[in-house]
Amino acid sequence: MTRVLHRTGVHDAAVDTDPHWRMHAVCRSIGDYLFFAAPGESSGVRARRERAAKQICTTCPVLMQCRAYAHANPEPYGVWGGMSEAERNATSSTPTITGS
């Protein structure tokens, strides 16, 4: 059975000038189920899922590139760069990437 995700992010070459960072993302080998909400997900399940996703993000070598991408595009759904959509919406500035 294929799961439908609420992912609307589109690669924007003007914003994401070096998409190769994605090749190094820890989440590539995990799957979307932790990073995006399932339809009808309860708040308790959401909180546990987001905590688990954010924990994975803390080990990711491209955390800041991911976070900057999500802020710049902006990604309306999911955990990106260790931040939920609510956390990204609460911040008004785009993080700066230092180094690669």
From TrEMBL:
One of its GO terms (molecular function) is 4 iron, 4 sulfur cluster binding. One of its GO terms (cellular component) is cytoplasm. The keyword Metal-binding applies. Acts as a transcriptional regulator. Probably redox-responsive. The apo- but not holo-form probably binds DNA. It comes from the Bacteria. Pfam families: Whib. This is Transcriptional regulator WhiB. Its cofactor is [4Fe-4S] cluster. Keywords: 4Fe-4S, Cytoplasm, Disulfide bond, DNA-binding, Iron, Iron-sulfur, Metal-binding, Transcription, Transcription regulation. It is found in: Cytoplasm. Upon Fe-S cluster removal intramolecular disulfide bonds are formed. The Fe-S cluster can be nitrosylated by nitric oxide (NO). [4Fe-4S] cluster binds at residues 27, 57, 60, 66. Binds 1 [4Fe-4S] cluster per subunit. Following nitrosylation of the [4Fe-4S] cluster binds 1 [4Fe-8(NO)] cluster per subunit. PANTHER family: TRANSCRIPTIONAL REGULATOR WHID-RELATED (PTHR38839). Belongs to the WhiB family.
